[in-house]
Write a structure and sequence with these properties.
binds S-adenosylmethionine; 15 helices; about 450 residues; globular; single chain; two-stranded antiparallel sheet
Length: about 450
């Protein structure tokens, strides 16, 4: 068991003592991971490993005494697969919900906005899907010449990853969906179904950090996979309760919600789980689905997508400029980050790690400042975040995102109501009590 850097740990102790910190494992341990999502209608359309649970929002609404309200305006700045939005719209038989999401990744935006649009479309979508699906099967089985272009990402030409006959069938399914005579929504649902088969019909596996080659894996047959997924979608659409709520997912930068959300239309609840500062790059992890659906035309577009994401990973070298440096909070942010920056070992990763720490803090401060301007007086902001260990051996230190964000939120005029520790992470690596995932509640000051 490795001792984490003691100076950084002491810094976190002092910070944490300023707020109410509780053991939230009973309430939240199973809700900060996607418990129940792969069995729940609409949520199950694409399995996002990094999602939180379908049951998180109802529990939060209850805890905050927001359940049973006549009206609820919700914002998720990092919508991912759309868990918040779908859960919010499912509330809406009792409550008039207005749910907005922002998501930067083109594929995840496709998934979340399609789920939301489908949920709102009502049960007639089921019939439309059935008809379009039959046409797709017919086109794939027939001699129709379908234009199937191989994505230019080299991963697809690796025959060990993508056996050619399976890839060709996967590409034919996409081409048939594009050819089918159907509505935009139905096409988007079918494309979601096809994209959700990319991983299972290959020998690639997402292990949480990266896409890995799994040589032992038996890739599934694309049309069988696709058909099974479409059948689930038809079932979900047909059994959907009509929702009077409004929901939308915008493609854009969740760090700056004011670019998209009218400042006068205040929110009751802002809830999100940002990318954690743990080097995971969503652009990379969901790249095969995004290339399959033609969201990137070339390597340049793929690379520029990375620059649009939160500075939580070192996959690209972001500019070394930080807005907080020229703000009135510069000294407070420097004081907050100094012990952590000093703990960064002086090795070849040093520059990237320091940039990640400063960039993440900069992004979070911008986010909290902007969110502060759109929260209602009685509103709340809830964030779910995980802390991570960096470095190794004697040089190991923890980035406690829950506490760093709480302090930044204070600088942006939020009050930290509670830090609820949902679960401890991989305690066998280090004995740091700060290696954990938390649910933090803020209210406007
Ligand atoms: C932890 S996931 C959110 C998962 C979501 N809570 C769910 O249950 O599906 C974080 C998301 O933030 C997205 N993201 C990264 N940078 C972003 C940015 N600048 N603006 C908006 N979204 C961004 C990632 O693509 C990813 O989908």
């Amino acid at each position: 068991m490795i001792n984490a850097n003691p100076t950084v740990e002491a810094h976190y102790e002092v910070l944490e003592a300023e707020w109410k910190s509780v053991d939230g494992s009973l309430d939240f341990e199973r809700l900060v991971v996607p418990t129940g999502n792969s069995e729940s209608p609409f949520h199950r359309w694409f399995h996002l490993k990094e999602a939180f649970s379908v049951d998180l929002l109802p529990v939060i609404l209850k805890k905050l005494n927001f359940d049973g309200r006549g009206e609820l305006r919700v914002l998720d700045c990092f919508a991912g697969g759309g868990t918040t939005l779908v859960s919010a719209l499912e509330q809406s038989s009792e409550t008039c919900v207005n749910a907005t999401g922002i998501e930067q990744n083109p594929f995840l935006h496709h998934v979340s906005s399609t789920k939301v649009d489908a949920l709102r479309a009502g049960s007639q979508l089921g019939q439309q899907l059935e008809t379009a699906y039959k046409e797709v099967v017919h086109l794939c089985d027939s001699d129709a010449s379908l234009v199937t272009q191989m994505p230019s990402l080299s991963t697809f030409s690796n025959e060990a990853y993508f056996p050619p006959h399976l890839l060709s069938s996967l590409l034919r399914i996409k081409a048939a969906i594009q050819r089918a005579d159907t509505s935009v929504l139905t096409r988007n649902v079918l494309l979601t179904a096809a994209a959700s088969c990319v991983e299972s019909t290959s020998r690639l596996r997402r292990d949480g950090r990266a896409l890995r080659y799994a040589s032992e894996r038996q890739p599934r047959e694309p049309m069988e996979e696709f058909s099974a997924r479409v059948q689930q979608m038809i079932e979900d659409a047909e059994s959907a309760r009509p929702t009077s709520g409004f929901g939308t997912v915008l493609r854009g930068d969740g760090r700056r919600p004011l670019l998209y959300v009218d400042e006068s239309a205040k929110k009751d609840l802002i809830i999100f789980s940002p990318p954690y500062p743990n080097n995971i790059d969503y652009t990379e992890i969901y790249k095969t689905e995004a290339w399959y659906l033609d969201f990137y035309a070339d390597a340049q577009q793929f690379r520029s997508q990375r620059f649009k994401t939160l500075r939580s990973h070192p996959s690209v070298r972001f500019s070394d400029e930080y807005e907080y440096e020229s703000s009135s909070d510069a000294a407070s942010v420097r004081e907050l980050l100094a012990p952590i920056l000093e703990a960064v070992p002086d090795d070849r990763y040093a520059t990237g790690r320091k940039q990640l720490i400063k960039g993440y803090a900069d992004d979070m401060l911008t986010l909290f400042r902007q969110c502060r301007r759109i929260i209602s007086d009685s509103g709340r902001l809830v964030y779910v975040v995980g802390n991570s260990a960096h470095g190794s051996g004697d040089a190991l230190f923890v980035i406690a995102a829950d506490l760093i964000m709480a302090r930044l939120a204070e600088l942006a005029n939020w009050h930290v109501d509670e830090i609820s520790v949902a679960r401890n992470l991989r305690r066998r690596i280090t004995n740091s009590k700060f290696l954990r995932e938390s649910v933090v509640t803020l209210s406007p000051v």
